[in-house]
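User: Watch each token:
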Amino acid sequence: MSTDTSDADNGNGNGTTKIDIRVPNRLLEKIDEEYERRGYTSRSEAVRDALRDWIDPPTRLSDETLEELVKSREQRKQGETQSADDVRDRLGLND
């Protein structure tokens, strides 16, 4: 891997370094198909974002959890749930 430090970081660690990577042609075709569609202005921007997600992955809820949230919202709309405060009052726990 070759690197080229192109932007000074002024001691704050925010400079950039150019790196060369090799990717299979089919992967590059997919990147080229997707980056503009997703609102990126360049391959580099898209790859940087992907690397950030690799380092610090976003929290994602499982399909099961998402389904339970939908059920919970429906139960709330239908009046089948009680607030925590109401339950505490009913059980005498607000003392």
About this structure: The mean pLDDT is 86. DSSP finds four helices and two strands in the chain. The radius of gyration is 24 Å.
